[in-house]
Amino acid sequence: MSDTRFVPGPPAVLVLEDGARFTGRAYGAVGRTLGEVVFATGMTGYQETLTDPSYAGQIVIQTAPHIGNTGVNTEDRESARIWVAGYVVRDPSRVVSNFRAEGSLDDELARDGVVGISGIDTRAITRHIRSGGAMKAGIFSGEDAALPAAEQLDLVRRGVDMRGRNLSGDVSTGEPYRIPASGERIGTVAVLDLGVKKSTLTYLSERGFDVEVLPQSASADQVKALNPDALFFSNGPGDPAASDAHVELLRESLRAGVPYFGICFGNQLLGRALGFPTYKLPFGHRGINQPVLDKTTGRVEITSQNHGFAVDLPVEGVHDSPEGFGRAEVSHYSLNDNVVEGLRCLDIPAFSVQYHPESAAGPHDANHLFDRFRDLVIARRDETTSTGDQN
């Protein structure tokens, strides 16, 4: 690609709902954006972060100081566009220097209309959020940067809170589509797209599944019509407490004995389907360096995470499902703060994790969970076949 050098934009300001203000220069599109401000601690993989639909509605701060040096390319996108509501970086790369680059990050942000800000102390903002929690925020650049401070703060405070917000319809596919299995076929998995990432679908296909991707509005009858060998709920943005229809769909499938695997939002929805509550974390887990203990293997895995909500359940002991699905236990938990990072049902074929085992930007410690899902489906199929032979 040509040697495109970054040119700092016009003045910009980041305003938090508690009144804190941070001034810098526009990065990407110029204008105004509102959302929940959060921080992501990954040292690499900014393009995968930006194109992850789970970040819809959020203004993302990159704690890594130098962003944009490898540019952007089509292959590394996790979806067709950038989903973040806004982007905050400290030092944008002056040039793009990578043989795989097809363009610059600031041009990509401008193309997708993402308002960002650069040249500010992202470490100070991160420490501020760690103390005060994730909060509403706004980025104002160009003419909007000249608005009176009181007016900017009022706009931020009148923004939409992430609590009670259902964003699945904003990020899900509009029409069903199919990805055939690669390699030896073992069956069909119905994927409810709540903001699914490209790499997730690739890994399911590589495990021998014909992947039937469904819109988030799919009904239980639509899922049943596919006669799937398994059901998968993807990652996605929003508050799980605002997704009652998805919970009921999952409950019907669990009652029918369909094997289930959920990731991130899909973990929270399994918790709700079993009858356990969810809650909002103070500032969430976001990054590709989060330590998690897998209680099944006893191994510590470094994981990729992006969630602001979690299942409210003690990490030790066996718990009876209030919804009649038998026993369940916490299979994984965070070594930073003991937050639930996975669930395993003991009486039905279902499990889930709160983090991202597909993690396209790395690490890949938990990629084996796709194998665990495949093995679960095969075991369930063999059990059903054996029972049928006896009858």
Describe the 3D structure.
This protein is an alpha/beta fold. It folds into two domains: 11-157, Carbamoyl-phosphate synthase small subunit, N-terminal domain (Glucose Oxidase, domain 1, 3-Layer(bba) Sandwich), CATH 3.50.30; 168-390, Class I glutamine amidotransferase (GATase) domain (Rossmann fold), CATH 3.40.50. It contains ten helices and 20 strands. Strands 10, 11, 12, 13, 14, 15, 16, 17, 18, 19 and 20 form an eleven-stranded mixed sheet that branches. Helix 8 crosses helix 9 (265-274). The chain is globular. The N and C termini lie far apart (66 Å). The model has no long low-confidence stretch (mean pLDDT 93).
Name a few traits of the molecule:
seven-stranded mixed beta barrel; alpha/beta; 391 residues; globular; Glucose Oxidase, domain 1; Rossmann fold; 2 domains; amino-acid biosynthesis
